[in-house]
Amino acid sequence: MEIRFYGVRGSISVSGSRIGGNTACVEVTSQGHRLIFDAGTGIRALGELLMRESAPQKATLFFSHLHWDHVQGFPFFTPAYLGTTELSLYGPGANGAQALQSVLVQQMEPPNFPVPLSIMRSRMTFGSALHGTPVEVGPFRVTPVDVPHPQGCLAYRVEADGHTFVYATDVELARDSLTRDVGRYLEGADALVLDAQYTPSEYAGQGGIPKKGWGHSTMVDAAQVAQAVGAQRLMLFHHDPAHNDDLLENMAEEARLHFFASEPAREGKRIVLGSTVTA
Ligand SMILES: [Zn+2]
Ligand SMILES: [Zn+2]
């Protein structure tokens, strides 16, 4: 299983960051099958790479939720405009298929965008991702998990080739508030992506508004959760748009005091599970 980060920023994209300015998009591939988690602005670059391949494209997209930083890149995902492309798209919750489709339609309606979603020629099918109900895609078993976030959000546990990857963005978690129901889906991940938007002092409101209840975690909470669930490595994710690269590196440094294998998720970073190869 190979994981690649195309967007690691939260809330809104930024420029001038080496760690990454694009909003959420993570690709997971195995045995010729492709999963895409979220369609933030990072999905544009992924689309450009896919356009260089001559074979028709097929992918399954799982949306954590429908906040704009997780859907806004979709109109710029060029393979979606090709008639040869097949896309399965999963929206969150019982009404996920309809909710996702209507958000993707609305964000391209006039006056928001020059062309409507219907101009995309790819074959799109919409499904609903439900808590605890696995979706099988090729070698992958993908299990959605309800996590605490305003209006709800899904984390995804991805199992394939004897390895486990967990994508858990936009979640307000702490070791003490980690319920058994959420914890068991994070258990033993070889690679764990966790929301780590804030520093503990920002979260507490020092020098500003307290961020409690906003649906995001601190890097210390993320590291303590990673330790508690026995993760192998942790990628701190959903970087705050106000945080520069130095601060993100310092946050990871502090996270390592609680869980040694912590690092900031970096745009372009590739992780291969089941091998020592990383780039
Ligand atoms: Zn977000
Ligand atoms: Zn959100």
What does this protein look like?
This protein has one domain: Ribonuclease Z/Hydroxyacylglutathione hydrolase-like (Metallo-beta-lactamase, Chain A). The chain is 19% helix and 27% strand. Strand 2 and strand 3 form a beta hairpin. The protein contains six helices and 14 strands. Helix 5 packs parallel to helix 6. With 279 residues, the protein is α/β, with parallel strands linked by helices. The structure holds zinc ion (2 copies).
Helix percent reads: 10-25%
Unreliable sequence segments:
none
Bound molecules: zinc ion
The global form is globular
Major sheet size, sense and barrel closure: 7 strands, mixed
Total strands: 14
Give me the CATH fold name: Metallo-beta-lactamase, Chain A
Structure characteristics:
binds zinc ion, seven-stranded mixed sheet, 27% strand, 14 strands, 279 residues, alpha/beta, Metallo-beta-lactamase, Chain A, 19% helix, 6 helices
Summarize the structure.
With 279 residues, the chain is of the alpha/beta class.
What's the layout of helices and strands?
Layout lengths: L1 E6 L17 E6 L2 E5 L5 H9 L6 E5 L23 E7 L3 H11 L16 E7 L5 E3 L2 E8 L5 E8 L2 E6 L11 H7 L4 E5 L4 H5 L14 H10 L5 E4 L7 H12 L5 E3 L5 E3 L7
Parallel strand pairs: 3-4, 4-5, 5-6, 10-11, 11-12, 12-13
Antiparallel strand pairs: 1-2, 1-14, 2-3, 7-8, 8-9, 9-10
Helix pairs in contact: 5-6
The site of one zinc ion (ZN) has 5 residues, from loops.
